[in-house]
Backbone:
């Protein structure tokens, strides 16, 4: 049975499935009230990405919400506990040097022995990778050319405080913290032929030379997280590029989004000449990914290959890359329903609505496919999906499903892979 038919049947009839993460056999099995994904394919590991919208408007507010018990966070946790990934990248979870928000979320919400609003058993993901990001970190430069240097837009990545819109990787498997790499400080100008923003009024670079030479590529960061799973090594290539919007005719965010995605295209590609070897990580190590490595590229990439106002060249190159297995596209029934119901901009889209992962302003851009879990061709995809359930008005579970769909403006994307 396809994952879509399974989703339709289970959501219509509210049929549950036994759901204990591997490695947690001591926990009692619980049949959840709603099944958001089929049981994991035999012999596979489930990898997911989820923009959880756990960003807050002020420093330390997420820590406060985590500790006091927040309804939106509980709903996010219920989704993850229901889908039961072995590895999940969380985007937009504020990073804090004072508190480990990712660990708080895991221990207080995922590993909590009590069942949640959907009747799910705990799903501990005790191995965590998180690191500083560029959002909210002051640059001291006037990056939006308004005569000030203290706007959120003047940070190395848009943010009101350091760590806003951060990332975290949670895993059932051991993470090799030493071998993992971060590229927070990688310079945009270090790329081979970077896409430098041009001011159309002057036909000159938007940034002066001194500023351009200091700009960091990542709006948050790029991570190569090394995971030891079932005796094999898996590289989770995680990032959350800036939205290609909220700028001017120079399209500085569109250019940055394009090159943030292109960084992964280059990272998994063979070098044509040594001069292209621009990857120096924050740990001082140089070089790109080994040609025989197992990898999954994951994250909210903020780029739809067909629709939206973005520059789509890089996401198309990534999907068409000879090392990327993009034959199986995660999809959902709820995205189709949402596109039909909301209409407006969605009616103009050329892409298949079942591939959408983000629910956005229907007058501006509409719903888009911007969240990805892309495995290497060394990995076989056995199943995949997007947690965007179809809601039947008047059904016994309709209110539950509405809360699931409203927990974030993004939807969890998952794949089951064989290592």
Residues:
């Amino acid at each position: 049975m396809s994952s879509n038919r399974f989703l339709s049947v289970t959501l219509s009839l509210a049929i549950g499935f036994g759901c204990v993460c591997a490695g947690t056999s001591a926990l009692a099995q619980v049949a959840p009230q709603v099944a958001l994904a089929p049981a994991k394919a035999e012999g596979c590991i489930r990898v997911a990405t989820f923009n959880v919208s756990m960003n807050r408007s002020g420093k330390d507010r997420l820590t406060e919400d985590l500790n006091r018990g927040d309804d939106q966070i509980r709903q996010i946790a219920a989704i993850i506990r229901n889908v039961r990934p072995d590895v999940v990248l969380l985007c937009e979870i504020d990073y804090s040097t004072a508190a480990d928000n990712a660990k708080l979320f895991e221990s207080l919400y995922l590993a909590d022995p009590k069942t949640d609003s959907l009747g799910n058993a705990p799903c501990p993901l005790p191995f965590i990778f998180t690191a500083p990001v560029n959002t909210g970190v002051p640059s001291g430069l006037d990056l939006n050319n308004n005569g000030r240097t203290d706007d959120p837009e003047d940070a190395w990545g848009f943010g009101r405080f350091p760590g806003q819109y951060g990332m975290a990787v949670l895993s059932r498997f051991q993470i090799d913290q030493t071998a993992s790499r971060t590229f927070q400080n990688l310079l945009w100008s270090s790329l081979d032929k970077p896409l430098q923003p041009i001011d159309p009024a002057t036909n000159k670079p938007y940034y002066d030379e001194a500023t351009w030479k200091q700009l960091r590529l990542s709006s948050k960061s790029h991570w190569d997280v090394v995971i030891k799973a079932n005796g094999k090594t898996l590289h989770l290539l995680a990032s959350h590029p800036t939205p290609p919007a909220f700028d001017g005719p120079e399209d500085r965010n569109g250019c940055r989004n394009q090159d943030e995605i292109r960084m992964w295209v280059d990272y998994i590609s063979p070098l044509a000449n040594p001069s292209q070897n621009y990857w120096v990580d924050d740990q001082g190590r140089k070089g790109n990914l080994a040609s025989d490595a197992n990898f999954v590229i994951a994250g909210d990439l903020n780029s739809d290959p067909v629709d939206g106002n973005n520059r789509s060249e890089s996401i198309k190159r990534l999907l068409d890359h000879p090392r990327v297995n993009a034959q199986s596209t995660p999809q959902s029934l709820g995205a189709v329903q949402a596109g039909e119901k909301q209409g407006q901009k969605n009616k103009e889209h050329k892409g298949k609505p079942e591939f959408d992962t983000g629910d956005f302003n229907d007058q501006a851009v509409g719903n888009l496919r911007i969240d990805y879990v892309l495995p290497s061709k060394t990995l076989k995809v056995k199943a995949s999906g997007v947690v965007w359930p179809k809601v039947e008005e008047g059904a016994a579970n309709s209110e539950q499903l509405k809360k699931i769909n409203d927990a974030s403006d993004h939807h969890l994307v998952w794949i089951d892979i064989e290592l």
